[in-house]
Design brief:
By secondary structure, the protein is an alpha/beta fold. Helix content is 43%, strand content 15%. Helix 3 crosses helix 4. Strand 16 and strand 17 form a beta hairpin.
Length: 491
């Protein structure tokens, strides 16, 4: 499997079609189940050699079939094994029934399981195909396992976790480890699913890469392999204007901190020139606190029009600490043909009439990137934010298509989406990024990449990834200043 294909995310419905295509290609589907169950058993033995007993919880579908194969393999290895089944095992059909009959085990009712010290639970009840709340019988078992602190190894996904949205359906096991097959699902990466899955292992069970490639969509994990070829690269003949000129708009004198963080981050990320455009009354504060960053007076729309006469001023960040919402709306109207990151106040400025922002974005020839957090997203896209049937990926895709901008839907599981339907889920952000000013730093990194000529989607995706790397370098307890100083250009 190629590295790019490995990064792809497949929702459960697509994975079902992949399984069917594998069968139609002549691969016996039971062989896939056998390999899956053997992989689960191998993982259990490798990671839990101290287990006094493996307790395999099986459901009525193919996930349960994987569990019965695993149970048989564990018994054959000499381990102590107990199997509990949800419902009537005699009602199993197809490959799952074959796995049950070959296992040689007699399952007990699921509700009879009482967790004990030394147990390791292998959760093969539902996996990724669940689309309804888990039954009360399983909820009681989940609660008991959690209370007892019994480690859980989940098959495909922890039972109760939605494979498409990454959210629990009523309740979910919290696994220490999850074993999945061939490819990951959105629920493995979206929060809180990423935490509920624990350590994730992906096993190749023999479905040809060509079948996965034929079903691969436009959703993947954010990784340099996706966007590295679009990144600007310095050469011997480069100079500051070739590396781009980024303009960062500042708020009044008492609120320049955000723009300073944005500007410093942009310089660190490789922009050739960064200018903070601020009200005249703020220039003294900026001059005393910035050295490598330039300053210019910009009080109103007329000042911006003059600035825009120089076509070298091609990239902008508007919003961090800006304050004046009416002026923000005026400035957005003038920036329609430039590359622009809109963050914070530039998003809030349009909360009452978001469609007016979208009209300005789509009417120009510029490259706009919107970087809302959860609350800001809800202000611009209240219907999408309230739709609990949609995943965070689907919300970001719909919002990007509606607005015409690249969306950076921020959070522990930041999603980057483009109007063409592409979407990436970021996974390298440490928890320490949840600090005041972190978003200002991110805006500066993305702005720097736009200034250097990177396409909007790739600039946003790379910016989010570089932001995560900077957070890891800065470490626990960092401030926004620490984060800004830890930013490095790609490459």
């Amino acid at each position: 499997m190629t590295s790019l294909l490995y990064l792809s995310l497949f929702d459960p419905a697509v994975m079902a079609r992949i399984d069917a295509a594998a069968g139609q290609s002549g691969i016996p589907l039971y062989d896939l189940m056998e390999r899956a169950g053997q992989a689960v058993a191998a993982s259990a033995l490798r990671h839990y050699p101290q287990a006094l007993r493996f307790v395999v919880l099986c459901g009525g579908g193919n996930n349960g079939g994987d569990g019965y194969v695993a149970a048989r393999a564990l018994v054959q290895s000499g381990a102590a094994v107990a199997v509990h089944h949800l419902g009537d095992a005699a009602a199993l059909k197809g490959d799952a029934r074959v796995a049950f009959e070959r296992s040689g085990v007699t399952p007990l009712p699921l509700g009879d399981y009482a967790p004990a010290g030394g147990d390791v639970v292998i959760d093969a009840v539902f996996g990724a195909g669940l689309s309804r709340d888990v039954p009360h019988e399983l909820v009681r078992v989940i609660d008991a396992v959690t209370k007892e602190g019994v480690p859980v190894l989940a098959v495909d996904l922890p039972s109760g976790l939605c494979g498409r949205r990454g959210v629990p359906l009523g309740a979910s096991f919290r696994a220490e480890r999850t074993v999945t097959f061939m490819a990951r699902k959105p629920g493995h990466l979206l929060m809180p699913g990423r935490e509920l899955c624990g350590t994730l292992e992906v096993f190749d069970i023999g479905i040809p890469g060509r079948i996965l490639a034929a079903h691969a969509g436009s959703v993947a994990e954010n990784d340099p392999l996706v966007w590295r070829n679009a990144m600007p690269h310095a050469d011997m003949e480069t100079h500051k204007f070739r590396r781009g000129h980024l303009t960062v708009f500042s708020g009044p004198a008492h609120a320049t901190g955000a723009s300073r963080m944005t500007a410093l981050s942009a310089l660190k990320a490789g922009a050739g020139i960064v200018t903070v455009a601020a009200p005249k009354k703020a220039l003294d504060v900026l001059s005393m606190t910035l050295t490598a960053v330039m300053n210019t007076a910009m009080d109103d729309a007329d000042d911006l029009r003059l600035w825009l006469d120089d076509r070298r001023h091609g990239a902008f960040v508007l919003g961090p600490g800006f304050g004046d919402l009416e002026k923000a709306r005026q400035f957005v109207s003038l920036l329609g043909d430039r590359a622009v990151v809109l963050d914070a106040d530039a998003i809030t400025a349009f909360k009452d009439r978001p469609e007016s922002l979208f009209e300005r974005i789509t009417s120009g020839a510029g490259k706009f990137v919107l970087t809302p957090h959860e609350g800001e997203f809800a202000r611009l896209f209240p219907d999408l934010a309230a739709d609990r049937a949609l995943s965070k990926i689907e919300k970001a895709q719909a919002a990007s298509a509606r607005s015409g901008a690249v969306l950076v839907y921020k959070g522990a599981d930041t999603v980057i989406a483009g109007p063409d339907g592409r979407a990436l889920v970021n996974t390298n952000a440490p928890a320490s990024l949840a600090t005041a000013g972190s978003g200002d730093v991110l805006a500066g990194i993305i702005g720097a990449l736009l200034a250097q000529g990177a396409p909007a989607f790739e600039a946003a995706a790379a910016g989010v990834w570089l932001h995560g790397e900077a957070g890891s370098r800065a470490g626990a307890g960092m401030t926004a200043e620490d984060l800004a100083h830890a930013v490095r250009p790609f490459g």
